Amino acid sequence: MAKGVTKQSVDFAKWYTDVVLKAELADYGPVKGTMVIRPYGYALWENIRNIADEMFKKSGHVNAYFPMFIPESFLKKEAEHVKGFAPECAVVTHVGGKKLKEPLYIRPTSETIIWSMYKKWINSYRDLPILINQWVNIVRWEMRTRLFLRTTEFLWQEGHTAHATASEAEEEARKIIEIYRQLAENYMAMPVHVGGKTDAEKFAGAVRTYTIEAMMGDKKALQVGTSHYLGQNFARAFDVTFLNTENKIEYVYATSWGVSTRLVGAVIMTHGDDKGLILPPKIAPYQIVIIPIWKNDKEKSQVLEAIGKFRGELKSRNIRYLVDDNEQTSPGWKFNQWEVKGVPLRVEIGPRDLEKNQIVLVRRDIKGRKFVSLEKAAESIEKLLETIQNDLFKKALDFREKNTFSVENYDDLKKVIEDGGFVKAFWVGNGDMEAKIQQETKATIRCILFDQKDKGTCFYTKKPADKITIFAKSY
RNA sequence: CGGAGCGUGGCGCAGUCCGGAUAGCGCACCUGAAUGGGGUUCAGGGGGUCGUGAGUUCAAAUCUCACCGCUCCGACCA
Questions:
Q1: What residues contact A375, with CB distance under 8 A and at least 6 apart?
Q2: Cα A456 to Cα A15, A177, A428, A459, distances in angstroms
Q3: Nearest nt by C1' to A353 Cα
Q4: Of A40, A88, A170, A288, which residue is 20 to 30 A from A313 by alpha carbon distance?
Q5: pTM as predicted
Q6: A95-104 pLDDT tens trace
Q7: Is ipTM > 0.90 here?
Q8: For the segment A333-385, what is each residue's pLDDT rounded down to a tens digit?
Q9: CA A173, A178, A184, A187 torsion: positive or negative?
Q10: A329 CA to B28 C1', in Å?
């Protein structure tokens, strides 16, 4: 025990839990299903969050904060919504020992409380659009929980926008799913399928749900972000109307969208290997870890002096680094420790290197070491980090494509799902057929792909089809 | 909610079937020394209401009953 993590091939779920715990990303909280996000895990989340936050702001959104307590009556105003969320809500019934007249729901999502406020704020088309986002915790009392992937309480952002026209709201929902795609692919190095959800899989209360779906290391799908076009459903429920340019009263059009701490789980399961985590440089808390090696005080000061030579340059290039000069642990121990923690690049520097005026670079994602001169250290490191970022994406994309199969009939689909992987297939079936397939194979339609122009034959109904869907088992 | 398993120092476990003496091991922790380029070695040390409650017994971690909690596998979900 104590050393290493369970091999992926032995038990992927166990591997995942081992990695989260041993990399010190998170720990179990005292209340069932809750999670403590530890500093290293939180740093990773912060990096992802900050990137997303900047993207939202650049596209015209602003942050705000709404209360976590929602009156029961609010939740009940939108029929689909309450049906979808009420069963998994935590409810406050007592305050100060006294029973409340109206129970307070702890937000499972904030559409209702936000739209109750939008009613106050929106009168005219001149008040639109409202483009608000909030970073908050929410509570959903799920049956089965897994660290980062599905916890009772989790952190996320939820955007809630209000628009004067359906097309503008629709455009917003699509704009956001594109931002999510960029976040996943360009920063987390995680290739995603972008598309729409079927009615069965869409958000409770939405007209349409858009999604990004990624393939994890066990070939299962993970929904990593969703953006919903809500139409006028919530505006009707909360009676939010505005006067348009023609002086006519109209219901407001809405969107909502979110990504959560699940993203952290997605990174782990996209890139990790049997040694532990592998983090893409753009989101890694430490992009490099520098491990100095010495035997005596003389060597120590020489090594530290050498590090000092390129330290400043690392800083000026905005490279996040850590010098692990802990004298209590051996270099070998550090190597292993930082590999579990997924630091993309390790720098070793010891007496032997000083003689040659060099440093040793070891990539986390591939085998082998590289030697570069001390003078070129910072420059080489910066370049290598870029390479690692790109290689991780390529590797993940390659893995997904190798495990994605086109099928022309139902038997083929069953076989692919059985063996593990994504099915890419033409589809025009209805919800009942979808449910039947799910029951028989446990696979669901993860998404109906965007930007798809080919025509073919539905593998299930044999009817002409112009939509391609991804079927997979999912988390 | 259905199925399976587990509660013993901080963590992971053995001991439980077949009751008996001071409850044992690994990791972690503390002290000292040597080590230090792939999870270092040796010596010494601290720490446990055996999940909770009741019962059986001369005697319970061990047998009986009840309760509580957790993890994993299924239906729901970001």
A1: A357
A2: 40, 26, 10, 9
A3: B37
A4: A40
A5: 0.95
A6: 888 889 999 9
A7: no
A8: 999 999 999 999 999 999 999 999 999 999 999 999 999 999 999 999 999 99
A9: negative
A10: 14
